Amino acid sequence: MADRRLTGRRHMCHFRTWSGRRQHQKSLKLKHRPTLPDSTKLITCPLPNAPDKSVLLGNASKREFIMNPCGKSPVCILHEYIQHTLRVQPKYIFKELENASTPYGAVVIINDMEYGFGYGSSKKQAKSDAAKSALEILIPKMKMFTSDAQSDELQDVEFFDEVRVEDPRVCELSVKAGQPYPYQILLECLKRNYGMGDTEIKFTMKNLKHQKNEFVMEVGKHSVSVVCKNKRDGKHRASQAILQLLHPHINSWGSLLRMYGKGSCKTLKEKKIEEQLITELQSQACANKPNMSILNKLKEEMLKFSEKMKSKKPIGKLIPEQMDFLSTSDSNLKNVEL
What does the angle CA 144 – CA 249 – CA 178 come to, to the nearest 5 degrees? Predict the structure, then answer.
């Protein structure tokens, strides 16, 4: 016991309190831990809300996982994300197109819903392009890793990435931003995934107290009910709830706008026209850039010329000889006839 007390006193000689000693030990452990390079960029992806043990126990901790996309292909990142969130395998459907440059097309299907479209000169390239477009829908932060020279002017919906799918302000914000209404998004979703024959939507409205109404919408096997002010408000809010049921792993309204909004489903011809415009703009930008090799050569020649002029020394000053101008001028004036 005496030896233990002595060792404890020796350790305490360097620290005033035991808490200071513990903090020092923690800092030493952190220094010995392996760390990632400074250039590494990680993405925190939220998991879909699902009943699990932590929720039943009343634990309010966030369900999320961290992913490192550096050095991975879009197909690999998409598979990793879906396995963490939905625990399913994405399916790819390939189509042969009548185009010599990009003869193959691919579509990503997750839980019987179409997400990304891609084109390429081979099936592998089309698959990668489709996975890339699906990632930009599912994880908006992936744009910083997958963005290339193509500008996405029509899909400038970054503001809606902070708005959840069932937010009651979506309809008002869509009007101000010039985006389609939630009911139009729902119709586009049903048309693409279930065809024109299965787009029947049933809805009823009941009057409640305090000038409120209950709007019930049925789409196939899905049914939702929302409390609204009028029929228009209920129609759009119920559409948002149905879209959330169809896409349970999507959290923001911006992802749905990228899937079903303006310019979301581009044909191969439209995509080629957009690529041609981008290449033309890039060529114009390159043409307007200064030619640094010519400018550097000109600068070098001008420096040589200035050194040559400085090296030349003057021989002397030029002094003109004095001449008798008055005598010659008087004789000429006498001979002039007036």
Answer: 65
Q: Are 69 and 142 in contact (CB under 8 A)?
A: yes
Using alpha carbons only, what angle is made at residue 89 by residues 184 and 81, rounded to the nearest 5 degrees?
75
How far apart are the C-alpha atoms of 250 and 247, rounded to whole Å? 6
Residue 122 structure tokens: 């081979």
DSSP string for residues in 140-179: GGGHHHH--S---STT--GGGGGSBTT-TTHHHHHHHHTP
Nearest to 107 by CA among 95, 97, 98: 95
Give the torsion sign (CA, 301, 304, 305, 306). Answer: positive
The pLDDT assigned to 334 comes to 54
Residue 182 is predicted with a pLDDT of 92
Asked if pLDDT for residue 328 goes beyond 90, the answer is: no
SS3 19: helix
State which fold the 156-262 domain adopts.
Answer: Double Stranded RNA Binding Domain (3.30.160)
User: Position of tokens 């901790």?
Assistant: 61
